[in-house]
């Protein structure tokens, strides 16, 4: 049921997420803000953050069990 609603990661999920981050930062204006949400039921946050050279300004866990994390990134000014 969950995979029907939200989809599921393929075997090359690392490449897909890395490319997704790269595209977000490519189109983001300098000093632009990107808010990202991740639930770590299957894949832990450090594995996801390792897929981008951009580090979040801050983040925090939410949800009943603290497995959903929100992160705020900012693209550097040119």
From TrEMBL:
Superkingdom as given in the UniProt entry: Bacteria
Name of the featured protein: Methyltransferase
Annotated organism of origin: Neisseria subflava
Source species taxonomy: Bacteria, Pseudomonadati, Pseudomonadota, Betaproteobacteria, Neisseriales
